[in-house]
Design a protein that fits this description.
Cytidine Deaminase, domain 2; 27% helix
Length: 146
């Protein structure tokens, strides 16, 4: 088991270790389906809802770069499509030497679901980095900003 200490100080997520394992596996698998002919930067993401449901997404590039959709936003869209917005964890998987964190747009979209969710950024070699979303996006623009 990769995450034997999920409830300890080492790994901050309150998500049970078996759900965490499945989420990392799902994000790793969906990463293979990414469409990234320009950057060759394949990203897989999984978001976990409050009931342990796992929703996945991968990045989809576009020749008009601004229209590219990130894996994290695709995963949020998949969760939303089945009526879930109560996300407690986001997992991002890349094939890089160090883990890559969500871009600013993804941080903002994730914040709309849960500004204090845990975010696990990891690599195919298990270089795990944990964050809390509000640390990645302090002073986020949200419903109270309107």
């Amino acid at each position: 088991m990769r995450f034997p200490y999920v409830d300890s100080e080492m790994i901050p997520s309150a998500v049970p270790s078996e759900v965490l394992e499945r989420a990392v596996s799902a994000a790793t698998e969906v990463r293979r389906h990414a469409y990234a002919p320009y950057s060759k930067f394949l990203v897989g993401a999984a978001v976990v809802d409050a009931d342990g449901g796992i929703h996945v997404g991968c990045n989809v590039e576009n020749a008009s770069y601004g229209l590219t959709n990130c894996a994290e936003r695709a995963a949020v869209a998949a969760a939303t499509a089945v009526g879930r917005r109560d996300i407690v964890l986001c997992v991002v998987v890349t094939d890089t030497p160090t883990a890559a964190s969500p871009c600013g747009a993804c941080r903002q979209v994730l914040s709309e679901c849960n500004p204090t969710m845990d975010v696990l950024c990891t690599t195919l070699e298990h270089a795990d980095v944990w964050h809390r979303l509000d640390a990645l996006l302090p002073h986020a623009f949200g419903p109270d900003s309107l």
